[in-house]
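Final report, Chapter 2: Outcomes

The project's central promise was a pipeline that accepts a single protein chain and returns its three-dimensional structure in a standardized token representation, suitable for archiving and comparison. That pipeline is now operational. To close this chapter, we reproduce one record exactly as it appears in the project archive, with the input sequence first and the structure output second.
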Amino acid sequence: MTKFAAALIAASVAFAAPAFAQEQNNSIVIQINAGSAMTSTGGDYMTANSGQPVAVGEKVMVNAGSAATLVYRNGCKMELRQPGVYTVPADCKVAGWTNNGTASGANAAIIAGAAALGAAVLVNEKDVKVGPLSASIRHF
């Protein structure tokens, strides 16, 4: 393995680490914005209070005229506006323009790093010696 390839692998691991760390988030709280919401870990539903921790896989029931928000440790917020039962996901997945920018900054850093790696590979390509296209065909 060349030094250049080893450097590319090391850089890839460094840029992937923040994305992996985001997926390890398990500290989630519920915020009641309007009306009421209830939570269940498999048994009866209990009234939820703002700031109450909720677990991954826990059910959240939002009543008609109510709204709640799941707030993740990284600052990402998932709105629960429609009446129904929601399962708390392990990671916050919302459109990039609706979160507070925390995840978007990490994503931008990963994209910038990947672009730099791609540029380094392209720059290195011009130094590769290319042999004849064919030994039996004359090229003009």
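Archive annotation: The first strand starts at residue 28 and ends at 34.
This record, like all others produced under the grant, will remain available to the consortium after the project formally closes.
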